[in-house]
Backbone:
């Protein structure tokens, strides 16, 4: 592999890593939002 090819591969790895990292972050945020919504709904249900 030449230097340029190695650099390209390295960039690919970085973008893959970032992509999966962002996916994980997005999933965590969605979970958090979902939990908050559920809590709010429960509070509303308790109040007559």
Residues:
């Amino acid at each position: 592999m030449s230097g340029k090819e190695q650099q390209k591969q390295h960039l690919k790895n970085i973008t893959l890593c970032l992509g999966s990292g962002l996916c994980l972050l997005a999933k965590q945020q969605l979970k958090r939002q979902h939990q908050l919504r559920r809590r709010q709904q429960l509070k509303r249900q308790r109040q007559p």
